[in-house]
Specification:
Length: 331
Amino acid sequence: MTRYFLGIDIGATKSHALIADESGCAVGFGQGGPGNHEVVGYDGLAARLQEITGQALASAGIDRSQIAGAGFGVAGYDWPSERADTLATIATLGLVAPVEAINDALIGLLAGAESGWGIAVISGSSNNCWGWDHERKRMGHVTGNGMMFGEYAGAWELMWKAIQAVAAAWSRRGPNTALTELFMRLTGAASADELLDGLSQEKYRLSTEVAPLIFETADAGDAVAAECIAWAGRELGSLIVGVAHQLEFEALEFEVVLVGSMHNGGRRLHDPMRETVHAVAPGARFVRLAAPPVVGAVLLGMEQAGVNAQVLRPVLINSTRELLARMGQMR
């Protein structure tokens, strides 16, 4: 009887489920909205798991009793104190297979690193950074709590950095910037005074969707926008450096997997990030994740059943792309 493996990628904005067989062929897919317990609670996480797993099972034409192993990459699962609640929520799926849950950054690492170890840095709506040593016995990570603990930068933090630059320009503490006009246009504010007044009183709200526009403003020649992006790159580099120190990677050659939409920003973001990392760990090699992170969750699920998953990684990546293309889900 063919064995099947389930992978789940739970995010703060979207969540995916993927099923593959023991040859690495992707056969089922499901998707839904946020499942991060910090956003929707554990009840919301349970509902999201049921939704996307049900979709993937229906897509594959199998039932959950045929799942031989399952891996879960869960955004918001940053501390050991959250493990019991995370596993209890996963248990509501009623799987009889062995399961494992890790932070979602690590499934990005599994999906993106040829060697199966190294460091993954997420820069999407927010940020995170986790790593595994070459024996997969030690993990290193940042807090995952963003601005509370001074960890930057995803789109959310870049947006706030740009707002601060606009405020500095208004108060004459910093240079003028085209970001002021950009935010006035987006909010409908008639002046910089009205913009900052409206933001401070929550009359106006900006979202992470402004991040690509900050890159466009930099490309149009605005030095302040360019510096905001360079700051984000240096901050991401500092996350990587911290994890590299924890895992004693300074003298090693290792992969750094870049996960998340902010990495579409290219050299403006990545050059200062690389410079920051290479000053400490010159052997770091940067790899843009080219597969859906949920691929890494399937690999994790395969490992729970004793499968040598890493050798199946190229097949799984290609078959997942083909499945998503057939389903019209490739983004």
